[in-house]
Every structure is written in structure tokens, then in C-alpha cells.
Amino acid sequence: MSVSSAPFSPEEIAAEGITPTEYDDIVSRLGRHPNKAELGMFGVMWSEHCCYKNSRPLLSQFPTTGDRILVGPGENAGVVDLGDGLHLAFKIESHNHPSAVEPFQGAATGVGGILRDIFTMGARPLAILNSLRFGDLKDARTQRLMHGVVAGIAHYGNCVGVPTVGGEVCFDPAYAGNPLVNAMALGLMETVEIVKSGAIGVGNPVLYVGSTTGRDGMGGASFASAELSDESERDRPAVQVGDPFLEKSLIEACLEAFKTGAVVAAQDMGAAGLTCSTAEMAAKGGVGIELDLDLIPVRETGMVPYEYLLSESQERMLFVAAKGREQELIDIFHRWELQAVVAGSVIAEPIVRILFQGGVAAEIPATALSDNTPIYHRELLATPPDYARTAWAWQESTLPACTVQGLQTDSPSSWTSVLLTLLDAPTIASKNWVYRQYDHQVQNNTVLMPGGADAAVVRLRPQGAERSPSTYTKGVAATVDCNARYVYLHPYEGAKAAVAEAARNLSCVGAEPLAVTDNLNFGSPEKPIGYWQLAEACRGLAEACRVFSTPVTGGNVSLYNETLDSQGQPQAIYPTPVVGMVGLVEDLSRICGQGWRQGGDRIYLLGLGVGAAADSLTLGGSEYLAVVHQTVAGCPPVVDMELEKRVQQACRTGIHQGWVSSAHDCAEGGLAIALAEACISGQRGAEIQLPVGDEPEQRWDHILFAEGGARILVSVTSDQVLAWEAYLQEQLAGHWQVLGKVTEQQQLAIATEQGTTVIAADLATMDDCWSTAIARRLQ
Length: 779
Prior knowledge:
Layout: H1 10-15, H2 20-30, H3 36-45, H4 48-51, H5 56-59, E1 69-71, E2 78-83, E3 86-94, H6 96-101, H7 103-119, E4 123-134, H8 140-160, E5 164-171, E6 180-189, E7 205-210, H9 220-223, H10 244-259, E8 263-268, H11 273-285, E9 288-292, H12 305-310, E10 316-321, H13 326-335, E11 339-347, E12 351-356, E13 359-365, H14 366-369, H15 386-392, H16 412-423, H17 432-435, E14 446-448, E15 456-459, E16 475-481, H18 484-489, H19 491-507, E17 512-521, H20 528-547, E18 552-558, E19 562-564, E20 570-572, E21 576-585, E22 602-607, H21 623-628, H22 641-656, E23 660-665, H23 670-682, E24 685-690, H24 700-705, E25 711-716, H25 721-731, E26 736-743, E27 747-752, E28 757-762, H26 763-778
Helix pairs in contact: 7-8, 8-10, 10-13, 19-20, 19-22
């Protein structure tokens, strides 16, 4: 038997995302042709979104264990030990394609899905972050997508009562047709034991709980694993519809149920719905599950097995209960006005058996749907692709001359103008238009608000504890980071830089980096360039995570992020491996934000100094080059990992000792933008004297706007200067500079040590330019 004798046309098989070779494999495993329901089950479970058939060999190189890791990849979320009996669950996932087709519901259900991953483990959701990418804001479609996505995130998070505390929003034409919507969630464990998903106990009942099943979200996993095209609008049924108020009830009911000890295993019904939950629970437990579709609560009539099994209706869970205690659980869910029925049982034979109207609708070995799926070991390009080699050949010298020696021929106002232009660039500009729509204070545990620090900080307060937050001094910091332009230009170095920046952002608030969850957003792995980008980025992520001792506890792979260009050719997004990282704050009284605190404080630059080596500090791939010169070229900065670790440790120590009053990393836009952001955030000015020396070839654009890792701006009060500098001389000798001081004057003044003015920017002008940039474009 082969595809040539199949009871389906080649078009029907392809519509399920299955290749002819894979169809033959299915027939071989079953010993027969599949029926329509089974074909659909294989289609969703063998999609990249579910089985990682192209990426699994690459993910195997990630470090996944460590002293604090309690649960790594393979469960609904990772879990780390924060000490004092506190355990944190966290994960990131994408909802890119649904958000491109229906931005409000696509983004909203992305939030709902990641929250379910958290409370399925037995953790109460504590906070949400998101990483968003859109095309050019001048484009009307981009504006519509952004409005819808932000509204969807706000709607779901605000209604369910979980604060959205941080994230990133970036803009580039590369995302014009395929926006990225990545949602990350954190939760504090409430159950004594971590709830796992592997089914155990032959004869134990299987419970369906939560909402009803409908036809929404049909084949969402397959939809997420295919390129977007003009036909994608017809796939709106693949976009789920969420109900945050029902999810709030589901959170409370699940946590109450878990605390009874009657739940043996639990699995969120997310991608691939009933198919995924039954197959994964059975395979992880080495058992089988028999499920009767006639017992599933539905909200539509006339549904057939294919629809039941591929529906991705939201707010649903599958439990394995201890035999004899099922009614105890059903009663809990009924009290919360939720569905709860015994719909099947655990069986000894390791299969997924689906019953419908008295017959067997599907019968498939569980491992064939879950872990024993196709794996593709693709060939890596022997040499980097032409586009990368061409980009690497670019040199700063091709830009208009602006050397230090030639300053007298330039007007200082020109560099002030460049500074304002970059502050007005949407990727750099304030995201207050976005985060003001999110409730970031619900639950009363948010310590550092969005926009005021390099990472979010949330108080760890166990449920049921006294209401006063001052009693609890421990916190968790979280961030999401990725400079996709860097990754596009050099996937290996760009991915390393993403990990380094995430760790740096945590260090800037005083948190110790602990662990990573990642979201790998890429184009097609079936194309040589796409696979090269994915493979090289994974190599960089793995290396950097080992260096920073931040194991990867899980995440999400989102491939085939491509749309058709004006010539009808598939155009991939920039490769975007978003790094979500969490860190521990031992003492919430020893943290800081990015804004200057008081006039007279001394300003220091830690790490790579002004005019550092071109490979570590460069205009290649910079925001300055892209915005001011409309050029994407060069090699992004090479991360000095050992220096990065030393700089971050120095920053954390300075904060913990009470020496450092503010800290802010130098990222997009370089030193000048970091200084401006610290001024705006603290509503104070700064007088900066640049130690440029007398090297005639130094360029002002390089000094002001070059980018690179291992650079942190800090401010220190005058009474702490001696202790601070003594520490720096011992721990960071040769890698720190005094740049100037904070002033109460409302101006950023940058000059040479000889007194020549380079930038003189009024604080009010900078603030207005930076804070209104996105809102002005969306009017």
C-alpha cells in the first residue's frame, strides 16, 4: 500500500501538511490506510509546531540541566527552584500566523494558551511578557495588525487578572506580512508536587474539563506550520476564540483540583486539541488512552470525529484522575460553572483509541503521534550564503567622513539631530502607547513598572499569604530579548548576543540570571538559507547559555514564517530567536531602574569603552545604519563572553552593595541613546565628557551610536564613589570609565574632554520625540 492507492487525493493529503513520503510512513506504521480522522491527527501531530521534525536535532545541543532546574524541556513549562520553598514555572510560545490573519483573537488566545501551560503545572500565573514584531508603521496594514494584537493581549491579560509587566516591540519591513506575537508567562507553584502530563494507572478515568468543544481553531497546529499566502484569509476557522473570564475560573478550579491530590496527570488542550493531549499523555506515561467523543461537551451540532479531534477550542484541559475520586474533581469544576465529565480511561495497550457513535473512529499507536515522529537531518551549507558574505564585506569607511579630527567642520547640532532621529525611530522609541493598555499592577506584586527599567521585577508572594507586600523581600526578574537584524546578518553571533543582552538586562536590575525559555521564529527550514540560519542560531544560543549557566527549560519553534512578495516569491522574516530569561532577586530593596536618580551622581561606563575595537563595537547592523543611512549591512558585534560576565557581575555587585543608583545597558542606538534614555527616564540631565583621545581616525558616529555588548551605564552617589571605584579597579581594571555627572539641568550635554560640544539636547525635546513617536504614526 502506498500513496498511489490511498483513499485520498494528493491534494487532500497535502492539505493536511503531509508529504507523499510521510503518507507512506503512516501506512507502514498502521499496516493500512488511515481514515479521514486519522489522517488529520497525523497532519497536526507531524507538523513542525507539534513534533519539531526539522528542529529537534538542533535543539538537542541546548544545555537543559542545572542546580536550580526542577523541570526541563518536555513538559508544559519549565520549573526552577528559587530557594525558600519557592518554585517558578515559566515558558514562551508563539501565535504568529493566527495573529496575522485575525490579530485580536490570535494574540488574545496566545496569552490564554501560555497561561494554561503555567497553571497546568500547578502554578498560579504571576506575570505576562510579550515580544512583538511588525512591519513599517507607515503601512496601513501594519497599523491595523498592531492595533489588533495589542488590544487582544490587553483584553485577555486584563480580564483574566494577570499583569503584563514587560516585553519588547520592534519594527522592520521584514515582518510586513508576517508579524510575530510571542507570549511569555511566569507562575509561582502552589501545589506541593509539580503536576506532570504523563498518564499513569491503567483503569484510571480520563476527565475532560473546562469549556465546550466547537469548530474554532480547526487544524491550528498545521496552520502554524505553513507559509502565509493570499489564501490564508480563508483559514480564519484555524484561529481560536478565547474567553478570559472562563479561563480565570479554570485557573481557580484547576489549582483547587490539584491540591486534592486526586489529579494524577494534566495536559492543556492547546495546539492539536484532543489529539495532542491524548497522544502526549499516553506516550509520556507508556500507556494508552481510550476516549469516547460522544461524551465530550460540545457547543455545535453535527460534529464529526475529524472536527472533534482537530478543534483547538480554548480553555480546555484533559486530566487523568485517581480511580474512585473522579466525582470529587467533577464537583469542583461544577462549582466554578465549568464542564467536567469522564470521557475515557487509561488502557494498557499503548494506543490512542477514539470511539464515536458506538464504533472506533481512530486507533493509532501513541508514540507514532508523539515522540516517534519524522525527523529530518538537513544538510548545512558548506559556506555562508552570498547575502551574508556581501554584508560582512561592508566597512564603516564607506559612510560619509565624520572623524574626531574633523569636528570643527561639523555643526554640533547635526549630531543632536541624529540623536533625535533615532529617539523617534519606533524600535527605539517609548512603547508607552502599548503598555499603557495593559494592566501591569493587578495582583499588587509588580515592583518595577514597564519602561522604567531594563527588566521587569515581580514580588514573590505565595497565595494565601498576608496582604501586606512589604513582608516579602524576594522577587523574580524577567525579560525577552532579540536583535533580529544581528541574527539575520550573522545567526551565530546574533543569537549569542540575544542571550548576552537578556542576561545583561536582568543584571541591570540586580537579578542573577537563572534559566532560559526560547521562541525560535524562522522561515522555511527546507530552504538552504533558512536551515543555515536556524542551525547557526541554535549553535549560538547553546554556546551562550552554557557560558552564562542559564539552561534552556523549554520553549517553542515557529518555522515557515514567510509571505509572498510583490513578485509572488516567498519572503522570509528575519530569523528571530527570542530569548526569554528569568532571574532571581534576593532582596527587593536592592534593585534599581535605568533613570538617573539625583543631581551630582557620577556616571560610569562599564565594559567596552568609548572607541573600543571595531569587532566588539560597530556600526554594522546598527539602528543608526538602518535608520539614518537606510542600510542593513556589516557584521554585528562579536560578544566577548568573559568580559560580558565580568561586567554583569560588577553591575549586580554594585546594586547589591548599594553603590549603584541606576543601571542601563547600551543596546540599540549605542551610547548616546542609552544616555538619552537614562535622562528621560530619570527626568534629569547629564554632562558627559567623552575620553576620545587624539586618534584622528575615530568617527563620531562610531563613538556615539556604535553598538556592542558588555556595556552598562551606571550612576553612583558621591558618598559611594570611593568604595565603588576601589571595587572596579580590582574587579574590572581597564574596563571602566568615568563619563560625567547627573545634573538638575534639563539637558543632555556631550562634549570632548577638551570642551568641544558634540551634542546639546533639551530634555523636553528628547522626551517628546521619544514618548510620542509610535502614537504619532498610529493617528
